[in-house]
Amino acid sequence: MQTPLIESFVSHFGEMGSRWGINRSVSQVYALLFVWDQPLHADELAEMLGISRSNVSMSLKELQAWQIIRVFRYAGDRREYFTTIGSVWDIFKAVAAERRRREVEPTLSMLRQALLDEPDNRRDQHAQDRMREMYDLAEMANNWFDELQRLSPDSMQHLMKLGGKVTKFFGDKDAKSAKRSKV
To answer: Cβ distance 42 to 56 under 8 Å?
Structure first.
């Protein structure tokens, strides 16, 4: 059975998942698999989470589509067992890749198509100029993401730890630039 610590984490993760646009049950199934010390089968997940077996099955299919859980069988047992993939860095990369596939790539495709059209009037020209800004930013982020995906977990961790130092470096430049423009 779940401990109060695990129950609290699973409950919170379910709440946060729904805020991120992810079904509460999917989030709770994932959270339980993430912190549990051994693989679990669907019946165990349903019992431990107090949700229907069909809801667990649908949640597991969604998590498999995101490629953030592993499925395997024990010899002599017909049931499928589930656990999360690798390290938190592997999970981060998988989730980011899937969000990119589902959200960023379709937006870039739509923007590319919209930028091919010749604007008919001033309003469309303005709209297209704004779309070009959005496309440029999304494309830059997409390219940066490609570079991040190639980094090892250690390199990603070092990069994230640099965060404050990098922003301070640019923050100092931005502050000096703003000061000069006021003069």
So the answer is: yes
What residues pair up with 170 in beta bridges, in sequence order? none
Q: Is the pTM of this model over 0.70?
A: yes
* Cα–Cα nearest to 58, from 70, 48, 46: 46
- Three-class secondary structure of residue 42 per DSSP: helix
- DSSP E strands in 15-55: the ranges are 40-41
Which residues of the chain are under the pLDDT cut of 70?
A: 172-183
The secondary structure element, H or E, covering residue 72 is strand 69-72
What is the DSSP code (8-state) at residue 119? Answer: P
Contact 132, 115 (CB under 8 A): yes
- pLDDT value at position 91? 87
